UniProtKB/TrEMBL annotation:
<keyword id="KW-0653">Protein transport</keyword>
<dbReference type="InterPro" id="IPR011989">
    <property type="entry name" value="ARM-like"/>
</dbReference>
<protein>
    <recommendedName>
        <fullName>Clathrin/coatomer adaptor adaptin-like N-terminal domain-containing protein</fullName>
    </recommendedName>
</protein>
<dbReference type="InterPro" id="IPR016024">
    <property type="entry name" value="ARM-type_fold"/>
</dbReference>
<dbReference type="Pfam" id="PF01602">
    <property type="entry name" value="Adaptin_N"/>
</dbReference>
<dbReference type="GO" id="GO:0030117">
    <property type="term" value="C:membrane coat"/>
</dbReference>
<dbReference type="InterPro" id="IPR002553">
    <property type="entry name" value="Clathrin/coatomer_adapt-like_N"/>
</dbReference>
<feature type="domain" description="Clathrin/coatomer adaptor adaptin-like N-terminal">
    <location>
        <begin position="3"/>
        <end position="99"/>
    </location>
</feature>
<dbReference type="GO" id="GO:0006886">
    <property type="term" value="P:intracellular protein transport"/>
</dbReference>
<keyword id="KW-0472">Membrane</keyword>
<keyword id="KW-0813">Transport</keyword>
<dbReference type="GO" id="GO:0016192">
    <property type="term" value="P:vesicle-mediated transport"/>
</dbReference>
<dbReference type="GO" id="GO:0012505">
    <property type="term" value="C:endomembrane system"/>
</dbReference>
<dbReference type="InterPro" id="IPR050840">
    <property type="entry name" value="Adaptor_Complx_Large_Subunit"/>
</dbReference>
Length: 105
């Protein structure tokens, strides 16, 4: 299971193999489900930190929905003893993402 989740986290970094509009959406859906599983398992510190770093990148994404999903997942990650420090490293980015949300409304 861990190997499969690691593969998913690696493949996210690869350039898209398809130019279809829905390809990034499908890729992100698989990624967020993998991250949710990593959070639920809460057993591999390396996977938790990698998931946290990936979510940190989404905090700066132009799409509001991805920022929201990243914030929600980071809230869950912050409760884990293994990833608490990794989430803390993204604190400034999290605050900035929340400010963007406030100014959009």
């Amino acid at each position: 299971m861990t190997d499969c989740l690691e593969t998913i986290l690696k493949k996210v970094q690869e350039p898209p193999k398809s130019k279809k509009v829905q390809h990034p959406n499908a890729k992100n859906a698989v990624l967020f489900e993998a991250i949710n599983l990593i959070i639920h398992m809460d057993c591999d510190p390396k996977l938790l930190v990698r998931a946290c770093n990936q979510l940190g990148q989404f905090l700066q994404h132009k799409e509001t929905n991805l920022r929201y999903l990243a914030l929600e997942s980071l809230c869950l990650l912050a409760t884990s003893e293994f990833s608490h420090e990794a989430v803390k490293k993204h604190q400034e980015t999290i605050v900035n993402a929340l400010k963007v949300r406030l100014f959009c409304c």
